[in-house]
Amino acid sequence: MQIGIDKINFYTPHLYVDMNKLAIARNQEPEKFTIGIGQDEMAVAPITQDPVTLAANAAWNMLDEADKEQIDFVIFGTESGIDHSKSGAVYVHHLLGLKKEARAIEVKQACYGGTAAIQLAKGHIALNPTSKVLVLASDIARYGLNTPGEVTQGAGAVAILISADPRILVLEDEVSYRTDEIMDFWRPVYSDTAYVDGKYSNEQYISFFSHVWTAHKEKTGFDLNDFEALCYHLPYTKMGLKALRTIYDDKTEADKERLVENYQISTRYNRKVGNIYTASLYLSLLSLLEQQENLRDGSRIGLFSYGSGAVGEFFTGILQPNYRKYLHTAEHTTMFEKRQEVSIAEYEEIFKQELPKDGSTLDLNIEEDPAPICVAGIKDHMRQYVNKQKV
Predict the structure, then answer these.
(1) What's the mean pLDDT in 285-314?
(2) 86 vs 133, 172, 367, CA distance in Å?
(3) Is 205 marked as binding a ligand?
(4) Structural domain for 89, as ranges
(5) Among residues of the chain, what percentage have pLDDT more than 70?
(6) Which of 5, 11, 31, 326 has the CB geometry, 3.0–4.6 Å to 57, for a possible disulfide?
(7) At which of 321, 339, 373 does a domain end?
(8) At what angle do helices 280-291 and 113-127 cross, to 10 degrees?
(9) Catalytic residues
(10) 7 and 132 belong to one structural domain
(11) Together in a domain, 160 and 175
(12) How many structural domains is the chain composed of?
């Protein structure tokens, strides 16, 4: 039985900041952000959006009634959870109107959570071939204003429907993975922002990629000429290129040119959105599928997932016949076109807005947010979610 991605969609907030302008405001050369880091724009989440609403918005227009009837497992990968106890999946399950005969859980391991969710979903489908699993990867990356990590912030979510006989990408069975207890990036429960050792994290990212890439080659016998493209977890878009360069010796010149071209195309969406942690790899994959017109059915795509702390994994997928029919390229183009640029001052003001930490009552104006699903406020220590389009 073949299992993999039957549908995939993403959502990012309607606000963004221009990285050239942010660089100037921070007394930096713009090229440091746009070339050195590889970011053009950064999504800004208004107070009416959180990881739950981002995930629900990503899935809302992707699912039809038949999908909703078959989904019996919702897995939410995030490192921006809103509750120590209740999973974000339960909220999304309700907001989407899914059937009650379903499981709903949240998984966490830094940016690896979405990949962990996909592997759990594969196992579920193997035992329940007529079921479908909704995988959600959703995060808001926050490091603080005027911090070294500010340039690698972002917000967004990717929703993925995993099923048997998928129409977009069959996930192959052989995978390689690695775990090691390191402190390259972490966020204690008492902190709203993350701590990161940037240089060490970059080194570990490349080290993990080297280990899992080598292990996968030994398991499968595959080499670079077996891959049409490699997609990477992208905390910033230059990071994946650094890892790709470490295996240039394995390539012919034609391999190198193909993989670099496809890598650059895979970063187009990420360059506009920024870092979205668990969803970054899958936004990269989606960018490749929707923006590279020369991808052929049957092509093998390699995917490298990395979650600081740390877990890394390399796995592969095969593009299915007529996969383009099941993408939402036009909708994503329109979403980007409709976004609104905010000034640096407006971005800083939005960044400082927070929901009350004491659970006090707050009503938010959701009419200014064009998203179908929003946070409407706080009441009795409970976030109030609204789906404007749900009957």
Answers:
(1) 97
(2) 19, 32, 27
(3) no
(4) 3-168+327-387
(5) 99
(6) 11
(7) 321
(8) 80
(9) 79, 111, 233
(10) yes
(11) no
(12) 2
Examine the domain organization and report whether 226 and 245 are in the same domain. Answer: yes
Same domain for 185 and 305? Answer: yes
Same structural domain, 164 and 182: no
Burial of 208 (0-12, 13-18, 19+ CB in 10 A): buried
Could you tell me if 249 and 312 lie in one domain? yes
- pLDDT value at residue 250: 62
Give me the helices (H) in the chain, please.
19-25, 30-31, 51-60, 65-70, 88-95, 113-127, 198-220, 237-245, 253-266, 268-273, 280-291, 329-338, 344-352
Compute the distance between CA of residue 288 and CA of residue 273 in angstroms, rounded to an integer.
15
Q: What is the CATH number of the domain that holds 179?
A: 3.40.47.10
One domain, residues 94 and 36: yes
- Distance, CA of 104 to CA of 86 (rounded, Å): 10
The token pair at 365 is 């104006």
Alpha carbons 176 and 174: distance in angstroms, whole number: 7
- 275 annotated to a ligand binding site: yes
pTM of model > 0.90: yes
Query: What are the angstrom distances between the C-alpha of 385 and each of 45, 140, 359, 375, 389?
Result: 16, 17, 15, 5, 12
pLDDT tens-digit profile of 184-193? 999 998 988 8
242 is in an annotated binding site: yes
